Amino acid sequence: MSFSAAPTPAFAYFDNAATTPLDSEVLEAMLPFLTQHHGNPSSLHGPGRQVRAAIENARKTVAHLINAAPAEISFTSGGTEADNYAAFGSIRTLGLKHAITSKLEHHAVLHPLQALATGGEIELHYLKHDAQGKFDLGHLAELLAAQPRAFVSLMHANNEIGNLNDIAAIGALCARHDAVFHTDTVQTMGHYRHDVQQLKTHFLVGSAHKFHGPKGVGFLYTRSGTRVSPLIYGGAQERNVRSGTENVYGIVGLAKALEIAIRDLAAHQAHVQALKTRFIEKLRAEVDDVRFNGLSEHADQSLYTVLSVSLPPSPITEMLLFNLDIGKVAASGGSACSSGAQAGSHVLEALGADPERGTVRFSMSKMNTAAEVDYAVEQLAKLYRPVAA
Ligand SMILES: Cc1ncc(COP(=O)(O)O)c(C=O)c1O
Fold first, then answer.
1. 174 in active site
2. What is the CB neighbour count within 10 angstroms for residue 215?
3. I need a labelling partner for 23 at 20 to 30 A (CA). Which of 184, 289, 349, 385 fits?
4. Closest atom of ligand 1 relative to the 82 alpha carbon
5. What is the pLDDT of residues 309-328, one digit of tens each?
6. pTM value?
7. Helix (H, G, I), strand (E, B) or coil at 78
């Protein structure tokens, strides 16, 4: 299978964990809801009903793709809102007093939980992990035994280092201790199959722009029977939990993007995994003392879309991303900031990574090519070659 080239060919775009280019099939599905179907989905007349039907069809599509019921899907403004909604909505409604999470979670999870802890509503417990970011499930069992009926939030895959976590095992442990389990699936939705009948999770989330859909739209899956209170009050949309006129074209685009992602998943995975393997091999050949953060280099334990590269100490470290940008390579990075002088990565810091080493996260999609990988490696390697006297 071949894929259309990235829409900005002047750049080798390797920041797909931040956001992915919109798929042209998705744009096509969205356009009628920008140009023709303008009714408010809450209106009872024909144009309103037509748009309502599109939203409900999108809900059915998303539900079907993760083996849920349509009533278990609520559309949101993205992953951040869905994570906030799960944390605030369930902890307050269910009166939970303890939450268990990890220091490797996205801020969309950490900050709401820390806000609840600072406000005295919960006690927050951090799960131990090793230097590669692998969770200690023995410690999770201990925490759950000491704090039954806790809110547990542990991500499916880490957005910075790519570690994949065993959410089936975590869910089973949570179920044994009557915990409420939320997993941030923003980086895996559309890249792996999720079956909520198999997973013992109360919540999972998706964000369309991570799988070639539009920005500013996502969804929360809430297991039937799990009570949550609204985050936004008003016109009672989304079954009264998330008021506000719906982002109709966004919702239509999200469902289409997820449908395409799941339809083509095997081909995409093979294509992107081959790019990642090529990246690793070329970097090893071209850059001395290159390493990989977390479990990033292990195909079976990390996202096939993310490669977190650790580079040797160098005067270039602080200007690494800037120099790549000049070289027309779009990537992201971070460092384990020890001095507090620069904006560091809380994930690398939690891993105890050497703050002298630079990190570049290359994140790939179906739209990248092998030639782009070779180009990006060459641009990076150039920065680490000794300058001739
Ligand atoms: C793991 C994870 N959770 C949550 C989010 C937030 O998603 P959104 O950008 O849709 O708010 C991101 C985005 O980078 C993410 O990677």
1. no
2. 16
3. 184
4. 11
5. 999 999 999 899 999 999 99
6. 0.94
7. coil
